[in-house]
Amino acid sequence: MEYEMRSIADAELEEFRRCQGLAFGNEINPEHLEAGRQVFEADRSLAVFDHGQIVGTAGIFSYEMTVPGEVSVPTAGVTMVSVKPTHRRRGILSGLMRRQLSEVRARGEAVAILWASESVIYGRFGYGVAMQQELLRIPHEYRGLRDDSVLAPGRVRLITQDEARVALPQAHGGMRLLTPGAVGRSEKWWEVRIFRDHPDHRGGFGSNNYLVYEEDGLVRGYLVYRRKGDFQDWIPAGTVLVTECFSEHVRAYAGLWRYVLGLDLVKTVEYGNAGMDEPLLWMLEDARRTERKRLDGIWLRIVDIEKALSARHYGGEGRIVFEVRDNFLNGTGGRFELEASPEGGVCRRTDTAPELVLGPEELANLYLGGGSAGGLARAGRIQGDARALALADRIFGWHVLPHCQEHF
Ligand SMILES: CC(C)(COP(=O)(O)OP(=O)(O)OC[C@H]1O[C@@H](n2cnc3c(N)ncnc32)[C@H](O)[C@@H]1OP(=O)(O)O)[C@@H](O)C(=O)NCCC(=O)NCCS
User: Fold this and answer.
1) pLDDT reported for residue 245
2) Coil, strand, or helix at residue 194?
């Protein structure tokens, strides 16, 4: 059966969210619905209708994402993907994905990104893991930093939410350009997603604490954390949860973390989404005692290969010809030549025989510098000889691994 598919009007948002609630097992709360409306982009939504009722949903947040070289590119942040339990496994998601990716390309964006609820869903649509994330749990007794760890001569200060409203967006704007995969935030986003800080969204922890590191009177880094106080048999058993940390340099990073790790009455410090090359693990004296769990992070889909690859800078000089076999999105795959250098890159279509053959998933793995062509080849997912694989790893690699601290 053919279902109607279209974007929704503002007035249909409640039904849209209700479909999502049924798929995820969440209740709809009128207060949160209204807050969410402020960042919802109705014109970029897609809903599938059966007999006039919404049975499938997908949305997009329009982001600017950093790619290697401190370059920002327009990026579709895919979100609110759901299919009503009564209608699952009939191809509704596949239809939504095909239409959504075509619309992303038509709008001129070269990439889409998302957080996947399950890792088995999006590969078939050409999304690949662009970065991994790590959950860290640092026990109180092993929170010590190495003797030679960096000194932080600046001032670490807790600021009020009103001060944070001014200081954090300013600092974030520049600092997020240092990390591939980081996305920009609009004023509304800051308000609704960070400062609203509703008790329902605190997971049993207290409200946000905003910590800044200043040198020469300027904010050089900030960290946001929550606390949960507890005692077990009169022994302090509190938890600190770090929700995000951005810094301009290592002194700020060291200063912020030294403060958090030193807090009293704490048993564990948790960092829910550390990066793949997390510096903290190199600062700790006994990093083995930190509990770590590595997961897939952001999934990425390139819908315009020439544009996406011409936007970033590369880890080395080189020219490589590759073929992308894309069975999902017509007109995206083909043969490409990439001229790469640390100053930038040019990617164009070619007829030349490829040195590497891969799918859109694997290209997404490599795109932000967080993948390994050699590793993918050893898993049978990229074809190419040792020279081409080494070259791909040299040029696609970057000295800062991708990290996205935004959940959407
Ligand atoms: C995930 C979800 C959107 C899939 O929707 P759907 O309409 O059932 O998906 P489709 O029918 O288009 O499935 C396409 C293919 O993906 C597979 N697939 C889809 N969801 C899957 C899942 N969760 N696990 C394993 N396979 C899945 C289907 O089996 C099908 O495979 P096939 O082509 O080999 O037959 C839906 O199950 C859902 O709403 N789940 C709960 C909410 C959720 O997880 N949303 C995603 C947020 S990131």
Assistant:
1) 98
2) helix
- Contacts of residue 309, defined as CB under 8 A and 6 or more positions apart, other chains included, come to 302, 336, 338, 345, 347, 367
For residue 83, the ligand 1 atom closest to its alpha carbon is: 39
Reading the block at residue 299, the tokens are: 């999934």
pLDDT tops 70 at residue 1? no
**Per-residue model confidence as pLDDT tens digits over 170-228:** 999 999 999 999 999 999 999 999 999 999 999 999 999 999 999 999 999 999 999 99
pLDDT at residue 2, as a whole number: 85
The structural architecture, per CATH, of the domain 304-396 is 2-Layer Sandwich (3.30)
Ligand 1 centroid–CA 120 distance in Å is 8
Percent of the chain residues topping a pLDDT of 90:
98
List of residues 6+ apart from 90 with CB closer than 8 A = none
CATH architecture of 134-294: 3-Layer(aba) Sandwich (3.40)
316: tokens are 């080395």
Q: Is 185 helix (H, G, I), strand (E, B) or coil?
A: coil
Summarize the confidence of residues 69-85 as an average pLDDT: 98
**Structure tokens belonging to residue 386:** 């040792």
The alpha carbon of 155 and the centre of ligand 1 are apart by a number of angstroms equal to 49
Residues with active-site annotation = 122, 408
Give the CATH architecture of domain 4-109.
3-Layer(aba) Sandwich (3.40)
- Which helix (H) or strand (E) segment is 305 a member of? helix 305-311
DSSP assigned state of 180: T
